[in-house]
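Why do we bother with a discrete structure alphabet at all? Because it lets us treat a fold like text: something you can write down, compare, and reason about line by line. To make this less abstract, here is a complete entry for Probable transcriptional regulatory protein JM47_02075. Read it the way you would read a sentence in a foreign language you are learning: slowly, and without expecting to understand everything at once.
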Amino acid sequence: MPRKHLIASGINKKQQQQAKIWMKCAKEIKAAAKQGTNPESNPRLKVAIERALNNNLSRESIQKNINGASKDESNIKELTYEGYGPNGLAIIIKALTDNEARTISAVRGYFSKLQAQLAKPNSVMMLFAEKGQFIINKDQDISSDSLLELLIEYDVIDIIETDEVYELLITPDHFSSAKEELIKANVNLISAEIKLLPDSFISLDPLNREKLVRFVNACEDDDDISWVVTNYEEEI
């Protein structure tokens, strides 16, 4: 196949992946908005909006899905699946589905290929905590001390420094205010999201890492699955 066709195919695949992410974000917003359209009094909607913004869904599309929630007659259920895999790998899957039997069948298949087992509710969730996470580019003249000083009024949990980025963790209640403060200071945010993060991390050998990559890809390709988180030490 000529190279230009390969490039075009790659671009098309990325567009399809982005479209799927936006579809899942819209689905999550609509489901959350059924419990109330004000994000300040509906924490689930607030998290869904932040996730959508982090994935570049426009504010217009977000508002359209919030407004359309009351007219949506689909019987969507929110389901959480927890499990354990190789070497103490902890897994949480969040799904939005109108067919519970279809979704659990698919999830069991994904777990089986990973050689993982489903666990009792909250047995895995207790190993994670919801936190506001900012990934900040270090390409500008900013230090970890200046970031902490900027957010001195907010509950900063931790700031982790690598060669290229800062990972700043904050309590969910202060996420929106801290985000506004960072934007006002022209801090280069790579991502900003409220998410479940593990209390500690595990490593995997190359074979089990490859199985985990396939597992995560299968979950992301599944229209019923909103997101999956694990306690693996690398981002997949």
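What the structure line is telling us, in plain words: The radius of gyration is 19 Å. Residues 83 and 119 are 5 Å apart (CA to CA).
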